[in-house]
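Human: Here is a favour to ask of a fellow structure person. Comparing notes only helps if you start from a blank page. Give me a protein, with the fold worked out from its sequence. Please set it down just below, with no commentary around it:

Assistant:
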Amino acid sequence: MPASQPARRALGTGREPHRSGVLNIGEVLQELSGDFPQISASKIRFLEEKGLISPQRTPAGYRKYTGQDVERLRFVLALQRDQYLPLKVIKDYLDAIDRGERPEALPGGMTLTPRVVSEQLSREIAGRGRTWSLAELGEKAGAGQELMADLLGYGLLHQQDSGYDEHALGVVKACVELQAHGIEPRHLRSFRAAADRQMDLVEGAVAPLASRRDVASKARAAETAKEISGICLKLHSALVNGDIARLDR
């Protein structure tokens, strides 16, 4: 599934291309490791196996990566990490782009619009991976000290000396919005319990893959876990929306 030339140009981030124009897998890892410290050769080969990238091959069978290949990988990894999208959703989107279509924006607003994606992707990546102290987290989310203390007290946040990430920020922002509707953290303990039960369900489903030692199996386990979690969220939404619809009858 080689990408069309226009689509590949749209994936660039404006970085200087590698001087040889062709990179080996070690050089690709070096290019990506700053934004994605956990990236590995096995993960890249897994993404190739899933059809997200198609590097050229030398006559001897070695992979040859271009700068466009690297940025395509960067795009996929950012969507996986930051928007939690299953690879199938990302692949369907990229396949449509490769066919010259103009699909709707992916969840989170990421698109492959020429000359826009590079700046947008750079901003997305730059804003991810950082952490905040508890005070910084509350300030960024617009939460007062009392609310932050309640979130810790009711288990919606866990004390972390290493700092709080984007997931914690999402929790606090949602709780700030709910508080505006009169819903306090003490009312939300069931969400923590439901999340724990869902995680137990997901971990049980992927246990055979997760127990293997090779990196590719762990990557498959993580991808399967995201897919199952997404389906669970769809089920939850359908059940709640069904109950809400009955209120209007």
The beta strands are 56-57, 63-64.
